[in-house]
Amino acid sequence: MKSKRRNHALGIRRQAACLVLGTVILTGCAVGPDFRRPEPPKVSGYTATALPAQTASAPGSLGDAQRFVHGGAIPVDWWQALGSAKLNELIRQALQASPTLDAARATLLQARETYEAQAGGTQYPQATAQAGAQRRKTNNAPSGQEGGERTFDLYNAGVGVSYHLDIFGGNRRALEAFAAQADYQRYQFAGARLTLAANVVTSAILQAQLTEQILASEAILATQEEQLELTRRRLALGAASQNDVAALQVQMEQSRAAIPPLRNRLAQTDHLLAVLAGRPPGGGAVPQFTLADFRLPTELPLSVPSELARQRPDIQASEALLHAANAQYGAVLAKQYPRITLSADLGWQALTLGSLFGSGALVWGLAGQVAQPLFNAGLPAEARAAEAAFAAAEANYRQTVLSALRNVADVLRALENDAQTLAAQAAADQAAQESLHLTRQGYALGTISYLQLLIAQQQAQQTATGLISARSLRLADTVALYQSMGGGWAHDEAIVK
To answer: Structure pTM?
Structure first.
């Protein structure tokens, strides 16, 4: 009875072993560690000290206080928050015509097609068809057969099928690496779109800043020229010295020398905007912006660090490279295991073309082959190299995350500090305008000279120049925050599909 139960249990074990072996042969197992997404950053904030509830405010449309909306979604077309129809149209043109974006799109398509090619070559059997005709001449005399020489035709046709059983997952790991490379190119494409849009916006803001700074500098120069002419008249009357004239002339020429570099930067910015939009600098005028064309968003979306790692395309691209390195390591390990190939041939051979597909012309064959590496001194070193490549990719990923966190921290502090700078510049401008108003009243009453009035005008214009820089800087900081948050690319159908 015991022997019967023992034999029955042994039979069950054998059946289970056969079932497991059959499952392995049919489905296979992939050697090497399965990829696990890295843990998101565990920090709760970006800066060592807490951010204020909102930034400082200043009079004017570009000086409003900005409030951080924690967990707020980043819109795909985030630049529309700046409220400029001209800017929206220019970005639309850039996204359609940029050669840089076209190159990134083509590289993405190449990566996807490479994956499809690899999948087609490894996941399915390979079948080939062949047909041929030969004319042969044989000599039977050396073999002692009668008949001497014989000439005949031989026709053949057939189909061959071969398949590599991916039992240990080497092909699947290689295919996994190709898929990760395609993901990497997708994130690169997303990063290129984000960078292009951000460059267009910041260049438009810089163009507006330079345009207004040139106007303000020209107004200062005109005031100084008038001031110098007045001082020369006073010199002729004996009411001023030659030193006064010389000092004013030096100041005037310094102001004049500062204007051409501004014009040069403005021209370069116009050229850059044209190229970003996908057209040559001389191919047509680019839109001209002023700071009044932009609106400062009063609410800014702010994602927590754990979400940032899933939103920024550079972090996602680094993760894709880490995934690819993990899969490549598994593919290298699979080389140390047996490789099984199955093949089958079905064909026809005949001496005449008319009887080629007759029942007597059928030939077939089945074959199986197992190849096991017995000695290859390079395989262990190749595996160690792949493991080191994964370690490097993992370190690069961690560095990418740290750089992203630093980028956001820098932008957040810039938003706070530059808002305070704008508030101070606005206060200085208000004081300068009030001083100019009082000076004009005194000049009208005859208690203040015209020279003093010119000096007050120059101070007010110089203060206005600083205010222009502070206003444009707040706009640029806002753009930098949207870019540092990832720009909402994950919701862009042009990228995720």
So the answer is: 0.84
